[in-house]
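Supplementary Methods, section 5.1.

A reviewer requested that the exact input to the structure prediction be made available. We therefore reproduce it here, unchanged from the version used in the analyses.
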Amino acid sequence: MREKLSGQSLRKLAETCVSILLGNLLLGFTVAAFIVPSGMIMGGATGLGLALSRFLPLDTASLVLIFNLLALALGWAVLGRAFVLTTIASSLLYPVFLGIMQRVPGIENLAGDPMLSALFGGGLVGVSLGLLMRVGSSSGGTDVVNLVLHKWTHIPVSVAVYVTDIVILGVQALYSRPEQILFGIVLLVVETAALDRVMLLGQSQIQIFAISPRYEEIRRRCLGELQAGITMVCIETGVTERSQRGVLCVIPPRKLYAAKMLIQSIDPGAFLTITQIKEVRGQGFSMERTYVDLSAPERGERGENDDADC
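The structure derived from this sequence is encoded token-by-token as follows.
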């Protein structure tokens, strides 16, 4: 058991490291290829670097690195060493990758059209941030500042995020052309949509709730043929006011058609509700499935309290 847990821990650590590397590399590439050349506005530490680069003789990557280091020092003083150790990787990797990408010849000419830059830039920024957030990391910078503001003022972190981004976007808007501001809004919308998709990638499942007098056969066949997780729910029918059980089943989307055909083959008149759920945790999903012997006795032999009357 100890070896198994050790193997799982190593695999989790490897996935975390790969996600942090890929997320920061993709973010550096996207900012260098699509955002900086088009001049569109952007929030976070990158937006602050873009704003300050207008007035200081430093490139965006250097300014982001300086800001991230200052934010780490602030986080160390206010939030503690443990917090800094969990964010230091991205705080250093992102500006380094950004500086490397900005020195790639011709990268600024990859997308000449501002709309393409906004669409690709927003999508790739959302993907990169999603890779980081899925493993509990971030790109540092304003994320640290937002947590410090939360600790000092007790305002919600979400409010702190809005305040800092509005200030950074407002500073850039002062010297940006109207179309750059509009493309920045497009970038933000696409980024948010892509981030939501990546955060839920591979976690979305389908929930089926079946109501039928033949609930026991539905239960056994879904367990055996679909290898689906089943929960029996005590219900009372609305018209006949008869107590029975409903079958609650959570399955991957690819099994939806098979599940519907199976239930309808057992009872064509079964009442079904089908819902898409965003995330499922527990055995068979976020934990290894525990298999049981499906040749166990029928319902009447399971226990005193396990009757149809609930």
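Residues 2-38 form the longest helix (37 residues). These observations are discussed further in the main text.
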